[in-house]
Amino acid sequence: MTSVSPQRVLLTGAAGFVGFHVTEALLARGIQVLGIDNLTPYYDPALKQARLDRLLPRNGFSFQPVDIADYDALQAAFATFRPEVVIHLAAQAGVRYSLDNPRAYAHSNLDGFLSVLEACRHHPVAHLVYASSSSVYGANAKVPFSEHDGADHPVSLYAATKRANEVMAHSYAALYGIPATGLRFFTVYGPWGRPDMAYFKFTKAILEGRPIDVYAEGEMSRDFTYIDDISEAIVRLAGLPPEPAAPGGDTHGPATAAAPWRIYNIGNHTPVRLDRFIAVIEAACGKAAIKRHLPMQPGDVRATYADVSDLMARVEFRPDTPIETGIARFVAWYRAFYGTAPAA
User: Fold this and answer.
1) Are 229 and 189 in contact (CB under 8 A)?
2) Phi, psi at residue 196, to the nearest 5°?
3) What is the C-alpha separation between 28 and 20, in angstroms, rounded?
4) Residue 288: half-sphere exposure toward Cβ, Cα within 13 Å
5) Do strands 8-12 and 32-36 pair parallel, antiparallel, or not at all (unpaired)?
6) What's the CA gap between 276 and 235, in Å, rounded?
7) 172 Cβ partners below 8 Å, 6+ apart?
8) Which DSSP category does 110 fall into?
9) How far is CA 50 from CA 15, 16, 44, 140, 149, in A?
10) Which residues face 256 on adjacent strands?
């Protein structure tokens, strides 16, 4: 098994939720990190700036305010920093937002990803690790979701762009030998999280005494994955660039290829119904929710459930933080960060 011990990592989306936590984990290991982010206003830029403000004083961290779709600026960052590993987490997120703002996804998730691939081509790196999403499984009915199953029926543009990233990375791995690993995240949550995510909205509304929107009678289920588990998996995988699959191996499924390219699920492998998740948030807040029931929304899926056997085999780790622990930590952070619940 080939491994690398990177001393310099270029990380896009450093002011984002996952990027912030992964940057902290890398810095704690003594790795130099160049953070890239343009602090888009998709959600409160003040929260992004607050994350960045915690990183800027850290030894080994530097930052450039670059839009990843600006290829010349990105290439200049690569040329100056000379990263050994790239962790690409910048993206336009959100399933529902993609219904109203599709061009934002083409800009960040397609043009931006192409810029990253081209920069890795012209400034060769030992490993490119990039964020995909569990949403690529779309209309798949078989659970748990396996990387070796098909993922060609997305039900949102966001999911379609993430699946496009996977096949774009495969083409560059095949053509130029760029070792590339895609990570299908399953409903990430935790402190410093994104305000557009359901658990963040629920906590805010419950503490303010406002109603929460509960879709599909709370019967949907999600494989909620705590942020520290996500970060640990990413850091472990970053040092393990993929090799081409052995002759006669699984080179035809979505998970592996004859090129140095792999896909991994990163999920808690324990789906939780939405109504139970809300009950855990209520307990952490010490207050009952006022519920407004609504039908399932376009682009949503009924359930997500990760098969993480490939991840476990590769890095001897799998996410396992219980939602009771993770939500309690999030609510404690929320109260400390906002003091009192912020105004609507």
Assistant:
1) no
2) -85, -10
3) 12
4) 3
5) parallel
6) 31
7) 117, 120, 121, 178, 180
8) I
9) 8, 10, 10, 38, 40
10) 262
Cα 271–chain centre separation: 18
Q: The dihedral of CA 215, 137, 189, 328: what is its sign?
A: positive
- CB neighbours of 90 closer than 8 A, spacing ≥ 6? 12, 13, 16, 19, 36, 37, 68, 108, 112
Cα of 58 vs its chain's centroid, Å: 23
Contact 13, 92 (CB under 8 A): no
The 3-state secondary structure of 18-63 reads HHHHHHHHHHHCCCEEEEECCCCCCCCHHHHHHHHHHHCCCCCEEE
Comparing C-alpha atoms, which of 12, 8, 234, 232 is closest to residue 109?
Answer: 12
Q: Are 167 and 249 in contact (CB under 8 A)?
A: no
Token readout for 326 is: 């993770």
Summarised one tens digit per residue, pLDDT across range 182-239 is 999 999 999 999 999 999 999 999 999 999 988 765 568 899 999 999 999 999 999 9
- Largest separation between any pair of C-alpha atoms in the chain: 60
User: Catalytic residue numbers?
Assistant: 158
pLDDT digits (tens, 9 = 90+) for 256-272: 778 999 999 999 999 99
Please enumerate in sequence order all residues whose Cβ is within 8 A of that of 285, keeping only pairs 6 or more positions apart, or say none. Answer: 203, 206, 207, 331
Interatomic CA distance for residues 222 and 213, integer angstroms: 16
- Specify the pTM: 0.94
